[in-house]
Amino acid sequence: MNDATAAADMNTSSRTTIRPDEAAHFGAMARDWWDPKGSSAMLHRLNPVRLAFVRAAIDRHWGVDPAGIRPLAGRSALDVGCGAGLLCEPLSRLGADVTGIDAAPENVMAAAAHAEGAGLPIRYMAGEVGTLDIGTFDLVTSMEVIEHVGDKPAFVAALADRLAPAGSSDSGRGGLMILSTPNRTPQSRLLLVGAAEAAGMIPRGTHHWEDFVTPAELSDLLAAAGLTMGTPQGIAFAPAKGLHLSQDLSLNYIVTAVRNA
């Protein structure tokens, strides 16, 4: 790496992505984050759907037994924008050595306390993912976060920097990234921002529709960071099925990404 490239990489990783107002908004919910009927109730409903996608992606990427109970044993995982640990704890139970990062110190403290009570050895840190000296990880996740950051290219580049390179694991596949985010569509504006917040299903001020990222935009952001995006799956809602994985991307979607071959 020449000096110019090193300087460019340093500038990208050091750019601020945290929005203080967003961190304060989510930090204010720290005390009841684990209450399935509290302000994060929608995340509790969403988490099993995301976990089903995550588990299937892990099995495909590393060729592990779908019936195994610890498919991440011997692997490391990083969850960025971890909140109070709703995803970190299942990843730990799947066998991973887990690190969670969040912009809000209040969330990190709540996450650490909950993990300690559950007997789970999860490392939690507050701050910018691009400035923390934490190394690389086999699995990098960031769920419902990119729509809240201030500099999306810098954020995706920082996530990519944390992804283990090819040849770093026993399979030689390198790291796996999984992201989820609302899609910027008329449907999401009506239902996620309008109806859900008006009905109290999501705290007011949680979503800003103009910051939502379309699948095409996310693909471009990942490509600029040297990653290839997989086929997105929608997270949809139906009265008979509740939240579920779907081909309908109009509200929310979840994707994998890997380093370019």
UniProtKB/TrEMBL annotation:
<dbReference type="InterPro" id="IPR029063">
    <property type="entry name" value="SAM-dependent_MTases_sf"/>
</dbReference>
<feature type="binding site">
    <location>
        <position position="81"/>
    </location>
    <ligand>
        <name>S-adenosyl-L-methionine</name>
    </ligand>
</feature>
<dbReference type="GO" id="GO:0102208">
    <property type="term" value="F:2-polyprenyl-6-hydroxyphenol methylase activity"/>
</dbReference>
<feature type="binding site">
    <location>
        <position position="102"/>
    </location>
    <ligand>
        <name>S-adenosyl-L-methionine</name>
    </ligand>
</feature>
<feature type="binding site">
    <location>
        <position position="143"/>
    </location>
    <ligand>
        <name>S-adenosyl-L-methionine</name>
    </ligand>
</feature>
<comment type="similarity">
    <text>Belongs to the methyltransferase superfamily. UbiG/COQ3 family.</text>
</comment>
<keyword id="KW-0808">Transferase</keyword>
<dbReference type="InterPro" id="IPR010233">
    <property type="entry name" value="UbiG_MeTrfase"/>
</dbReference>
<dbReference type="GO" id="GO:0032259">
    <property type="term" value="P:methylation"/>
</dbReference>
<dbReference type="GO" id="GO:0061542">
    <property type="term" value="F:3-demethylubiquinol 3-O-methyltransferase activity"/>
</dbReference>
<keyword id="KW-0489">Methyltransferase</keyword>
<comment type="pathway">
    <text>Cofactor biosynthesis; ubiquinone biosynthesis.</text>
</comment>
<dbReference type="Pfam" id="PF13489">
    <property type="entry name" value="Methyltransf_23"/>
</dbReference>
<keyword id="KW-0831">Ubiquinone biosynthesis</keyword>
<dbReference type="GO" id="GO:0010420">
    <property type="term" value="F:polyprenyldihydroxybenzoate methyltransferase activity"/>
</dbReference>
<keyword id="KW-0949">S-adenosyl-L-methionine</keyword>
<comment type="function">
    <text>O-methyltransferase that catalyzes the 2 O-methylation steps in the ubiquinone biosynthetic pathway.</text>
</comment>
<feature type="binding site">
    <location>
        <position position="50"/>
    </location>
    <ligand>
        <name>S-adenosyl-L-methionine</name>
    </ligand>
</feature>
<protein>
    <recommendedName>
        <fullName>Ubiquinone biosynthesis O-methyltransferase</fullName>
        <ecNumber>2.1.1.222</ecNumber>
        <ecNumber>2.1.1.64</ecNumber>
    </recommendedName>
</protein>
